[in-house]
Design brief:
Number of strands: 40
Radius of gyration: 28 Å
Distance between the termini: 59 Å
Structural class: mainly beta
Number of domains: 3
CATH architecture of the largest domain: Beta Barrel
Strand content: over 45%
Largest sheet: 22 strands, antiparallel, barrel
CATH class of the largest domain: Mainly Beta
Length: about 725
Amino acid sequence: MRLFIIILFSAISIYSNAQQALHIKTTGGENKNSVAATILIKGTTKGYSSDTTGTVSISFLANGNYTLVISAVGYVEKQIKITIPHSSDTFEIELESEEHEMEEVVIQSTRTSRTIANVPTRVETIEFEEIDEKNNMRPGNVAMLLHESTGIQVQQTSATSGNASIRIQGLDGRYTQLLKDGFASFGNFSSGLSVLEIPPLDLKQVEIIKGPASPLFGGGAIAGVINFISKTPRVKSEYNFIVNHSNIGQTNIGGFASARGKKVGYTLLALYNRQKPYDVDKDEFTEVPKSKEFTIYPKLFVYPDENTTITIGNSVTSGERTGGDIQVIKNKADASHQYFEKNRTFRNITTLELDKKIGDRKRFVAKQSFSIFDRTINIPAYNFAGIDYNSYTDISYVTNGNKHALVLGGNFIYNSFREKSTNNRNNTSRTGGLYGQHTWDATDKVKLESGLRIDVANYKNVIYSKTEVFVLPRISLLVKYSPKWSSRIGIGMGYKTPTLFTEETETIHYRNVVRLNNVKSETSYGGTADVNFRTNINDDFAFSLNHMLFYTWINNPLVLENFSTTNYRFVNANKPVQSLGFETNARFIYKNNFKLFLGYTFTDTKAKYLTGTKFLPLVPKNKLNSALIYEKAGVIKLGLEGYFTGRQYLSNGTHTPAYSEFGFMAEKIFKKFSLYANFENFTDTRQSKYKNVVNGSHLNPTFDEIWTHTEGFVVNGGIKLKL
């Protein structure tokens, strides 16, 4: 009996020593507020959720080493290793807010996974906080998000359809390459509507490279690159919904969901937009077209092991936009009211990505996408229809050493346009390239990045074929003079193969534009140089300043000319396009609650082949943007924005007046939802206040170039749910 008691107590003692209950408290933010988080024991399916005080108790049944994965909405996922038995039964885990300072922002576009402070290439970022604010203004697309960024201009190309393109540093939209998660799926025929078909609801970051960026991105990156980066699933499920309505008749209903298990995760974006026809100046023509559009974008993430991620996605967008005579749109056409413009589009993008980590310092990444863009344009007595197929393949190998990072890769792009209307303007392009980029940390203060791409491009149609070879070097230098001062300089070359689809041909619906013939690619060289200053004036007040110079020279610019009574053709001009100027950005932050942003852009863009002034039309020489924001985390957001745009030259040589606009936004945040209201352009700045946009009769109208808002003052509001 005595032996049995000894064995029993020994077993109890051993069992007691092999288990421990830990009381874990999760906090976050400057004031270490309690954070409701999810904690997963890595390597198991066991997950625990903390209560509203951020506290959770976890019982460990065996001694040993454990890794805890802690996640919470609005905070960076964190992993902590612990050993059981632990020296204490309680400990605190502090999480870092996703809205941290720019030094901690990790850049994806340069592929080396460096923080923004250590990337020699100049990259601007739009963080989740600002994306979320702009989502309040226009949930349907990213146009508003980019319109208010320094040095970027969202140029409306049609008075009736509202189509738009993105200009960087005053250059035509065809010189800006748009990417979604690194995939080039938004060029050529689809480019005129791309910015209107990318919703912001699933974005976590936008990265902008201004100036030539050819080594990694190839042709089309003359003015710059904009990479829209989607959210990825985390252990804690995320369910966001938005319902928005405006006084101009727009309704948006959307949702985003994501979750992750041990082996599988997913994200899902769904958005429906509806717009009633809107005529603010009562001229019986729409300033905002009648439209309806639906997007659904599921992505599946598979994790075969800790070092491998396979991502499969398929995005579908279908839309219809009808502008023109209000009576026609309302099915009340008569002998005096006949004009309309209808756009029907269908876009399908399928993506596949393999990301394989090889040890701690190497990665292998393979990307493949295939996109289909089908569009039909109908106006009285004219139809245009075509379908565009695009295939993009990219394979890269990345290695990061103590002082050296190397990216090696190759890609192949195939694009085929098939016209379905009467004219046969079918064309095909094939581009294959090899690229390399080397980043060298010469010292803690000096970092050098050099890259080289060699592309072979062939483009052809039924009457013409041409093959060209491009050698594209680029070099960037980052110098950190002190903790407060730094500067970057980057120079490089680029090219753009000829295309029928530009801002000019978009405005005339590609009508009477003949096939490409005897033209060659546009080539460029240019660069940027900037200086940065950051300081904390005291514990409550921080200040930062960035000043950048830019310059781009484009040879053989592709120009549309009227060579007969009604027909148009593209030719290479014998004189270049030149863009130069500077951007200045200042940011003031007080107690992390008040933020003031000021930005000024000076742009001098000239087409040397033009007569007279030589200024490119619709490029303001002076532009000022400002924003004052008050935010109390988790409670309220208030924002006041103001913009000044200087005079712009029109194609006929006249210039527009300067104008200003202001907006105000407010959002009240509750635990699971928030209510917001936005007063955009409450000064009611619009083009029709200066001159009629539509001229002539209702049967055969002509339209002025669009140089400012057409819709005027817009009020919208809604509710956002976060579950």
